[in-house]
């Protein structure tokens, strides 16, 4: 079946511009995560969506970052007034989420969007 | 907040050599532990996971990992590596928050494994 898809695969933008990154999770997966991977670093958690619950935004690095999700489908991550330190690979993941004790459910990752801010 | 340390940045092995990649985490409570692998040009994919029960976990492609609670470790092992195991390996942990309810993964920085034929 189809996995997690992300678009665009690559994005080059000038400092100060806004960018929007898209994630299509696996159908039926109610949980969706955004992570960022800067060069030489592990993945950093950004934001989490689960159904109609309020998102967990605790990982967003600044108020220039925001994300939305419509129901249990597509999510967009928006970065306003991009800075060079925003250059990274942005990864989206989705998982099943059926109850409070399901931290063991596998997160399936997309291919990522490589963002370069010049 | 929890953190994950992977001791080796880059490991180079010959085919048939044994592999052990170190992973330590810092969190005093119950954790779920994962190893993910990223082959060149491919997505991150799950190798294996531990959440309860037998601390020796077997995953795909002959990999296994042992959870040692007293050492806060979850080292990855494979008795005999192949050229096709060349990849980057990430250790990750999540904890069961009852507040925000987010099962976010905290990742180590990754270990690049190069297997020489």
Low-confidence blocks of residues of chain B: none
Distance between the termini of chain A: 37 Å
**From N to C, what is the helix and strand string of chain B?**
EEEEEEEEEEEE
| Secondary structure: helix percent of chain B | under 10%
Low-confidence stretches of chain A: none
Helix and strand sequence of chain A: EEEEEEEEEE
**Overall geometric form of chain A:** globular
Describe the main β-sheet of chain A briefly: 6 strands, mixed
Residues in β-strands, percent of chain B: over 45%
Overview of this structure, please?
The complex is a heterodimer of chains A (118) and B (117). In chain A, 0% of the residues lie in helices and 45% in strands. In chain A, strands 2, 4, 5, 8, 9 and 10 form a 6-stranded mixed sheet that branches. In chain A, strands 1-3-7-6 form a 4-stranded antiparallel sheet, with no helix packed on it. Chain A is mainly β. The model of chain B has no long low-confidence stretch (mean pLDDT 90). Chain B contains no helices and 12 strands. Chain B has 117 residues and is mostly beta strands. The interface between A and B is medium-sized, with 32 and 27 residues.
Features of the shown structure:
heterodimer, A: 118 residues, mainly beta, 4-stranded antiparallel beta sheet, 0% helix, globular, B: 117 residues, 6-stranded mixed beta sheet, 53% strand
Summarize the structure.
The complex is a heterodimer of chains A (118) and B (117). Chain A is globular and about 40 Å long. The model of chain A has no long low-confidence stretch (mean pLDDT 90).
């Amino acid at each position: 079946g189809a996995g997690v898809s992300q678009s665009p695969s690559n994005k080059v933008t000038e400092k100060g511009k806004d960018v929007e990154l898209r994630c299509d999770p696996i159908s039926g997966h109610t949980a969706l995560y955004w992570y960022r991977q800067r060069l030489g670093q592990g993945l950093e958690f950004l934001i989490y969506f689960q159904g109609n619950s309020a998102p967990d935004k605790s990982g967003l690095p600044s108020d220039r970052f925001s994300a939305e999700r419509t129901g249990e489908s597509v999510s967009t991550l928006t970065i306003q007034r991009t800075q060079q330190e925003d250059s990274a690979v942005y990864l989206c993941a989705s998982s099943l989420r059926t109850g409070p004790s399901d931290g063991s459910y596998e997160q399936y990752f997309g291919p990522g969007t490589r963002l370069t801010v010049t | 907040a929890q953190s994950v340390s992977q001791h080796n940045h880059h490991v180079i092995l010959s085919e048939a050599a044994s592999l052990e990649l170190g992973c330590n985490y810092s969190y005093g409570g119950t954790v779920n532990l994962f190893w993910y692998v990223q082959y060149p040009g491919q997505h991150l994919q799950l190798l294996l996971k531990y959440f309860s029960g037998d601390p020796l976990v077997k995953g795909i492609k002959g990999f296994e990992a042992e959870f040692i609670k007293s050492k806060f470790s979850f080292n990855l092992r494979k008795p005999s590596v192949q050229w096709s195991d060349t990849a980057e390996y990430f250790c990750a942990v999540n904890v069961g928050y009852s507040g925000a309810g987010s099962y976010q993964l905290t990742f180590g920085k990754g270990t690049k494994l190069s297997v020489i034929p």
